[in-house]
Structures are given as C-alpha cells and as structure tokens.
Amino acid sequence: MSTTLTVEGMSCGHCEQTVEEAIEALAGVQGAEADKDAEQVSVDGDVSTEQLIAAVEDAGYDAKA
C-alpha cells in the first residue's frame, strides 16, 4: 500500500531525512521518500494514515492526508 501525505515545514535535505526516519521507524513501513519542494512524503507499507501523521508531527512538522 502506498500513501502520500502533505508535509509543511520541510526546508532542507536534513528536514527530508528527519521525516523519512520518523516514518521508517514505524512497524509496517517498507520505505519513505520525502520531497521538500513538493511538500510531500510518499510511504510504502501497511500503516494507518493516522499513525503516519502522528509520526511526522512528533518529528516537528505539520502533516495531513
């Protein structure tokens, strides 16, 4: 399953890495790719949207489906 979230607040490569690592730490996630220019993160895996949003917000960014 693939999910794309809108993520606000990423301004650099380190931000992208932080978001990716926060999501990849969740059980069931196979991979994540953040794009600061598109303000999105694409996630492969079997995880609820609510869990993904919570992980991004815990990392300090705003996320929505």
Describe the structure in your own words.
The protein is α+β, with helices and mostly antiparallel strands and 65 residues long. The protein has one domain (2-64): Alpha-Beta Plaits (2-Layer Sandwich), CATH 3.30.70.100. 34% of the residues lie in helices and 35% in strands. It contains two helices and four strands, in the order βαββαβ. The protein has helices at residues 13-24, 49-58; strands spanning 2-8, 29-35, 40-45, 62-64. It has a four-stranded antiparallel sheet, covered by helices on one side. Strand 2 (29-35) and strand 3 form a beta hairpin. The longest helix is centred in the N-terminal third of the chain and has 12 residues, at 13-24. The protein is globular, with a radius of gyration of 10 Å. The mean pLDDT is 98.
Question: What layout of secondary structure does this protein have?
Answer:
Elements lengths: L1 E7 L4 H12 L4 E7 L4 E6 L3 H10 L3 E3 L1
Antiparallel strand pairs: 1-3, 1-4, 2-3
Return the structural class. Answer: alpha+beta
In whole angstroms, how far apart are the ends?
14 Å
- Which range best describes the helical content: under 10%, 10-25%, 25-40%, 40-55%, 55-70% or over 70%? 25-40%
**Which topology does CATH recognise?**
Alpha-Beta Plaits
Number of helices: 2
- The CATH level-2 architecture is identified as 2-Layer Sandwich
Overall strand count = 4
Radius of gyration, in Å, reads: 10 Å
**Top CATH class:** Alpha Beta
Q: What multimeric state do the chains show?
A: single chain
Strand content: 35-45%
What can be said about the biggest beta sheet? 4 strands, antiparallel
- Taken in chain order, the helices and strands follow as EHEEHE
Which strand order does the major sheet show? 2-3-1-4
Low-confidence stretches: none
Total of domains? 1
Shape type: globular
Mean pLDDT: 98
